[in-house]
C-alpha cells in the first residue's frame, strides 16, 4: 500500500485546439467546414500518473493524427455531432484499455458568396467561395462511454451555440425589482436589450452499435487493420438512434434552436432577461422532442443612455423611451443563466 497521502481519483488527457479545415469536393461544387476539436480519453491509464509508466499512454500527438485522419476519411465530417461520435468510437475501438472518449467540436461559420445569376436581379451561390458571416459558433460535446464494453456503448450528446450577439432597441423593460439602501439602478419601461447568447441543448443518451465484428476481437493486427481500413470510413447508428430530431440530426436541430432563440428574442415583449430566457428554452423543448434540457447563459451587453441635459436635450424620456444616444459598457455586466428541463 502506498504511503502517499492522496490517491488518483480521476484522470483524463488528450489533445486540445486541433484546428481543421475540410474541403469536400463534389466536382465543381465544394463544401467546407472549419472545426476546433478537443479529444480527451479516460481508461486504464492510472500507472502513467502513479508509477511513471508510459506504456498505457496513447500520445496526444497520436490523438491529433487520428483526428486529422478521420477528418479525411469519415463520411460524417460535415456534421459535427456525427463526426464527434465517429471520432470517440474510433478511439475506444482502437485502444482496448481506453473506456471513455470526450470530444468537443467547435464549428466556425462560413457562408457562400452570392454572385450575379442569369437574370438582371438574380443572384446565385458561388460553388467554391465563402465568407465569414458571423462570430457565433456551433458547439458539440460528446461523451462516448464504453465502460461496460464495446457491446454496450452509450453516448451523451450536448450541442449548442456561443457568441451569438443580438440587440433589440425597444421591446424590453426592467422594473419592479428589489429596491433598498443599495439600489441605484433606475427602473426602465423601455431599454436596449443586448446579449451574447450561449445556449446548450442536451439530448437523451443513445446506444452506439458495437464497432468491431467478432472476427477481429482478440487479433491485434486484424483489429488494427479493420479500424484503420473500415471503421474509419463506415460508422452508423441504429435506425431509431439516427432518426429525425436525434443527435444524428444535429445540423437540423441546431438550425431549429437558433431560429427559435432569435425569434423569441425579437418578438417577446421582455419583462426581464430571465423571463425571455425561459420562453426561449420552452420553445426549443416544444419543437425538439429528443432534447431533454436546454441551458442558456445571457450576459448583459449594457448600453447606457448618455445624459445630454447639459446641452438642453432630453436623451432619456419616459422610462428610457426617448433615449437615442447610448454609451456601450463592457464591464461590469449582469449574467443571467438557467436550465429548463423536460417534465
Automatic annotation (TrEMBL):
Family: Belongs to the uricase family.
Pfam families according to UniProt: Uricase
Gene3D superfamilies reported in the protein's UniProt record: Urate Oxidase (3.10.270.10)
Binding locations of 5-hydroxyisourate: 60-61, 174, 191, 273-274, 300
Keyword Translocase applies: no
GO annotations of cellular component type: peroxisome
GO biological process per UniProt: purine nucleobase catabolic process; urate catabolic process
Its biological purpose: Catalyzes the oxidation of uric acid to 5-hydroxyisourate, which is further processed to form (S)-allantoin.
Protein's UniProt name: Uricase
Reactions catalysed according to its record: urate + O2 + H2O = 5-hydroxyisourate + H2O2
GO MF terms, alphabetically ordered: urate oxidase activity
Active site (record annotation): 15, 60, 302
Protein's organism: Ceriporiopsis subvermispora (strain B) (White-rot fungus)
Cellular localization per UniProt: Peroxisome
The EC number(s) this enzyme carries: 1.7.3.3
Principal location class: other
Transmembrane annotation, as ranges: none
Amino acid at each position: 500500500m502506498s504511503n502517499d497521502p492522496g490517491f488518483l481519483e480521476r484522470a483524463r488527457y488528450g489533445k486540445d485546439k486541433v484546428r481543421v479545415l475540410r474541403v469536400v469536393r463534389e466536382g465543381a461544387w465544394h463544401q467546407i467546414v472549419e472545426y476546433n476539436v478537443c479529444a480527451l480519453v479516460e481508461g486504464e491509464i492510472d500507472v502513467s500518473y502513479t508509477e511513471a509508466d508510459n506504456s498505457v499512454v496513447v500520445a496526444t500527438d497520436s490523438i491529433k493524427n487520428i483526428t486529422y485522419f478521420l477528418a479525411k476519411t469519415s463520411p460524417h465530417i460535415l456534421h459535427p455531432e456525427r463526426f464527434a461520435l465517429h471520432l470517440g468510437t474510433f478511439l475506444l475501438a482502437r485502444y482496448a484499455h481506453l473506456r471513455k472518449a470526450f470530444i468537443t467540436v467547435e464549428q466556425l461559420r462560413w457562408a457562400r458568396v452570392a454572385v450575379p445569376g442569369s437574370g438582371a436581379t438574380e443572384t446565385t451561390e458561388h460553388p467554391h467561395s465563402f465568407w465569414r458571416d458571423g462570430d457565433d459558433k456551433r458547439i458539440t460535446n460528446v461523451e462516448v462511454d464504453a465502460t461496460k464494453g464495446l457491446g454496450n456503448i452509450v453516448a451523451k450528446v450536448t450541442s449548442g451555440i456561443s457568441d451569438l450577439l443580438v440587440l433589440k432597441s425597444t421591446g424590453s423593460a426592467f422594473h419592479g425589482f428589489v429596491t433598498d439602501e443599495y439600489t441605484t439602478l433606475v427602473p426602465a419601461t423601455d431599454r436596449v436589450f443586448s446579449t451574447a447568447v450561449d445556449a446548450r441543448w442536451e439530448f437523451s443518451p443513445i446506444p452506439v452499435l458495437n464497432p468491431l465484428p467478432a472476427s477481429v476481437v482478440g487479433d491485434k493486427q486484424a483489429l488494427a487493420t479493420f479500424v484503420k481500413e473500415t471503421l474509419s470510413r463506415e460508422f452508423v447508428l441504429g435506425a431509431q438512434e439516427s432518426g429525425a430530431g436525434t443527435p444524428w440530426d444535429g445540423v437540423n436541430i441546431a438550425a431549429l434552436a437558433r431560429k427559435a432563440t432569435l425569434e423569441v428574442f425579437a418578438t417577446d415583449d421582455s419583462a426581464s432577461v430571465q423571463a425571455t430566457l425561459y420562453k426561449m428554452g420552452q420553445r426549443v423543448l416544444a419543437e425538439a422532442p429528443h432534447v431533454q434540457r436546454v441551458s442558456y447563459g445571457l450576459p448583459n451587453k449594457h448600453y447606457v443612455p448618455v445624459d445630454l441635459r447639459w446641452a438642453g436635450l432630453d436623451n432619456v424620456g419616459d422610462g428610457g423611451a426617448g433615449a437615442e444616444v447610448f454609451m456601450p459598457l463592457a464591464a461590469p455586466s449582469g449574467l443571467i443563466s438557467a436550465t429548463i428541463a423536460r417534465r
